């Protein structure tokens, strides 16, 4: 595995993710349509950089198919951003309500078992139902809240990817300095003793 090229791809994707997240947060006057299109462009860039910066021998058919599907998905989002935003908001609202109802039913079950803190789960479930209803019945505000949450998440993912890329780069340099490592042209081998 070519760690240097892999680390470069991870760092580039992390930097792109961080910049997109920061742009989505720093541009509060932008409409949801513009922000969703920025997200679509990010998905397309991720797909392209995954193919371009893939390690030698890493451009498998699976990677190409995944990247092409991601590009098609990004194009679909770019063409109809408000449909995508409304769809995701409704799905998130339904999911929140579903898991909140599940939390309330679980709290009633653990109350029968004699757990004294059952009411905490009930309160969390009730708050979740209110938040899910907010996403369903105030979709424009739900879209804005969802976009802000998504922007923060993308920024955090970007920072994590950059950190991972630097660790991979450091690991590659440590492996290159290892005196037991020998490259005979047929791949990497490590010389040492066999312990039984």
Give your account of this protein's structure.
- The protein has 196 residues and is mainly alpha-helical.
- It has one domain (3-176).
- 79% of the residues lie in helices and 3% in strands.
- The chain is built from six helices and two strands, in the order ααααααββ.
- It has a two-stranded antiparallel ribbon with strand order 1-2.
- The chain is extended.
- 21% of the residues are buried.
Estimate the global geometry from the Cα principal axes. extended
The chain-level structural class is mainly alpha
Helix content: over 70%
Topology pattern, helix = H, strand = E: HHHHHHEE
Count of alpha/pi helices: 6
Q: What's the end-to-end separation, in Å? A: 28 Å
Largest sheet: spatial strand order: 1-2
Unreliable spans: none
Q: What would you report as the Rg, rounded to the nearest angstrom?
A: 23 Å
Number of domains: 1
Give the percentage of residues in beta strands. Answer: under 5%
The strand count comes to 2
Mean pLDDT, to the nearest integer, reads 80
Largest sheet: 2 strands, antiparallel
Comma- or semicolon-separated keywords:
two-stranded antiparallel sheet, mainly alpha, about 5% strand, about 200 residues
């Amino acid at each position: 595995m070519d760690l240097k090229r892999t680390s470069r791809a991870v760092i580039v994707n992390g930097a792109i993710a961080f910049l997109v997240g920061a742009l989505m947060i720093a541009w509060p006057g932008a409409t949801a349509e513009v922000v969703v299109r920025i997200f679509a462009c990010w998905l397309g860039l991720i797909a392209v950089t995954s193919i371009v910066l893939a390690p030698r021998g890493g451009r498998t058919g699976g990677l190409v198919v995944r990247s092409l599907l991601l590009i098609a998905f990004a194009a679909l989002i770019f063409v109809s951003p408000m449909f995508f935003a409304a769809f995701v908001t409704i799905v998130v609202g339904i999911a929140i309500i579903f898991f909140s109802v599940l939390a309330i039913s679980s709290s009633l079950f653990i109350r029968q078992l004699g757990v004294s803190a059952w009411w905490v789960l009930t309160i969390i479930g009730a708050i979740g139902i209110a938040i899910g209803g907010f996403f369903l019945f105030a979709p424009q505000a739900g879209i804005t809240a969802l976009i802000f949450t998504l922007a923060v998440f993308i920024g955090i993912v970007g920072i994590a990817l950059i950190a991972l890329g630097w660790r991979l780069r450091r690991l590659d340099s440590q492996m290159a300095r290892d005196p037991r490592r020998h490259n005979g042209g047929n791949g990497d081998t490590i010389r040492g003793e066999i312990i039984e």
